[in-house]
């Protein structure tokens, strides 16, 4: 099914709205404790309990409006539901904090597997249509594998050694900025291996 075009602001809101909502709710509720069924839950767990269904609803809305979800969106949603659910069910925030690590390890592993076969899965994985030659895709994929592994290690370091609030800031802003800066720094790859649309089709 071809992807339907929707308002870019609406699309961005559905993709990033839950993350912004998670951050705002955490800032408001981080010092509160909630009692449910005789069990006390800290603010982080309560916010996670709200984030999981919000993420499900926003992803379903995005699929309904566009008729399409990327592999990255599907994998991310599954890991949010599984590890967010475990954190709430077991009343243990560590599972949710490990989620970014597993996401980056999964994509590094998938891309690395493709490289071992001499292929780049990057374009289909990210639903990208960048005008790169085959060699360019391989170069970019190798760099992204290393980058994802680095983010996985960094996330483990942050949540295990820093405060919970520091990790929330890192997850909300640091990881997003890191991915943005990575692609901004790859200008030399796009210049060296870039091809025109006509050449790519030919």
From TrEMBL:
Keywords: Cell inner membrane, Cell membrane, Membrane, Transmembrane, Transmembrane helix. This is Inner membrane-spanning protein YciB. The gene is yciB. GO terms for cellular component: plasma membrane. Plays a role in cell envelope biogenesis, maintenance of cell envelope integrity and membrane homeostasis. The chain crosses the membrane at residues 12-29, 41-66, 72-90, 102-120, 140-159, 166-184. It is found in: Cell inner membrane. Belongs to the YciB family. The lineage of its organism: Bacteria, Pseudomonadati, Pseudomonadota, Alphaproteobacteria, Rhodobacterales. InterPro entries: YciB. Its main location: membrane. It is a multi-pass membrane protein.
